[in-house]
Amino acid sequence: MATPKKEATVEELREMIARCSMAVVADYRGLKVSDLQTLRTTLRPLNGEARVAKNPRTGIAAEQAGKQGLVEFLPGPTVLITANDDPVGVAKAIGDFARTSRILKVRGGVAGQRTIDEASLATIATLPSREILLGRVVGQIQAPLYGLVGVLSGTIRKFAYVLQARIDQLNGASGGAEAEAAAGD
Questions:
Q1: pLDDT at 37 (0 to 100)
Q2: Which long-range contacts link 56-64 to residues 24+ away (Cβ below 8 Å)?
Q3: For the residues of the chain, what is the DSSP string, one character each?
Q4: In this model, does residue 48 exceed pLDDT 80?
Q5: Angle of helix 55-65 versus helix 4-19 axis, rounded to 10
Q6: Which of 149, 140, 39, 153 has its CA nearest to residue 94?
Q7: 49 pairs with which residues across the strands?
Q8: pLDDT > 90: percent of the chain
Q9: What is the pTM of this model?
Q10: CA–CA separation, 102 and 108 (whole Å)
Q11: Which of 19, 72, 106, 116 has minimal Cβ neighbours within 10 Å of its Cβ?
Q12: What integer is the mean pLDDT of 158-184?
């Protein structure tokens, strides 16, 4: 029989897993509480969370949230790390923390509905941030438009030069006739 406290914990975990874009399970054995707090502090500005929870409750919450792929990584002491927005920043933070601490071992996780392993997480960490990718897309859309504007303005500019040359030519011819008339007087 599940107690109300356990049910509340499962519900919190379910909400946490359901709203995340990426969830990662890691082995935290050997980490100090201060190290886990450092990880949480690092994740907070990136809109990520790290939470230690019992595996049966995390498994139930993952299944309820529709992320069954997370269950296979749960055996053993685990910390659940989630990315609520951009998974790239959180993946970089996890990779950096695991590299510096040499204790945290990433087992795997889910990104969307796809199961990811440690190598996939490292690949995600190498991607540029969302803002940079959006900037690149805008640049790719903008470049042909600037080229079109350049071509069209070049044609108009050349036409204006031709008209100006013709005006100068006509003024030069009429200016020359006026100069001859004045010299003849």
A1: 92
A2: 57/6, 57/9, 57/10, 57/13, 58/13, 60/10, 60/14, 61/10, 61/11, 61/13, 61/14, 61/16, 61/17, 62/13, 62/14, 62/17, 62/23, 64/10, 64/14
A3: ---HHHHHHHHHHHHHHHH-SEEEEEE-TT--HHHHHHHHHHHGGGTEEEEE--HHHHHHHHHHHT-GGGGGG-SSSEEEEEESS-HHHHHHHHHHHHHHHS--EEEEEEETTEEE-HHHHHHHHHSPPHHHHHHHHHHHHHHHHHHHHHHHHHHHHHHHHHHHHHHHHHHHHHHHHHHHHHHH-
A4: yes
A5: 50
A6: 39
A7: 82
A8: 22
A9: 0.69
A10: 17
A11: 19
A12: 76
Length of the chain: 185
Indicate the pLDDT class of residue 82, thresholds 50, 70 and 90. very high
The mean pLDDT of 153-161, rounded to a whole number, is 88
CA angle (158, 160, 161) in 5-degree steps: 65
Q: Position 97: which residue type?
A: F
Structure tokens at 148: 């079109």
Confidence of residue 148 (pLDDT cuts 50, 70, 90): confident
Contact 43, 50 (CB under 8 A): yes
